[in-house]
Design a protein that fits this description.
Elements (H helix, E strand, L loop, with lengths): L1 H25 L6 H36 L3 H29 L4 H20 L1
Helix pairs in contact: 2-3, 2-4, 3-4
């Protein structure tokens, strides 16, 4: 069933692409749809990198705090800050997902990990 939906969506996109190409050619405008696809792929890579970086910095800050024996109130304030930072990375990834029309396996895995980390932070408050 899912395969049929994907095929139908792909056929619709291809038909839209052909129609748009005709409109552009009518006005003597050359438009490379391959470039648009590449931009979308790169945006997904950038958003994945941002999510990975946010998660990495959060983990490093947690390790550094634990090694210093940080006080509970200081950790809670920093935790709220990390929740906001991770949430912003998540929002950016969602915006890219909407723009690109999906994401790859890597981005999907990182998004889940980021969502789980945000849930953990919010549940520990």
């Amino acid at each position: 069933m899912l395969l049929c939906k994907d095929k139908k969506r792909d056929d619709t996109l291809e038909q839209t692409k052909v129609e748009e190409e005709k409109k552009f050619k009518k006005h003597n405008i050359h438009f490379d749809f391959g470039l648009l696809i590449r931009i979308k792929e790169l945006m997904v890579d950038i958003s994945s990198g941002c999510m990975e970086l946010a998660l990495k910095e959060k983990r490093e800050a947690k390790i550094a705090s634990e090694s210093r024996g940080g006080k509970q109130c200081r950790i809670k304030n920093k935790t709220v800050g990390w929740a906001k930072t991770l949430w912003r990375a998540f929002q950016f990834a969602f915006g890219v997902y909407t723009f690109a029309g999906g994401q790859g396996d890597r981005a999907d895995k990182i998004t889940r990990e980021l969502g789980n980390e945000i849930e953990l932070i919010l549940n520990n408050e």
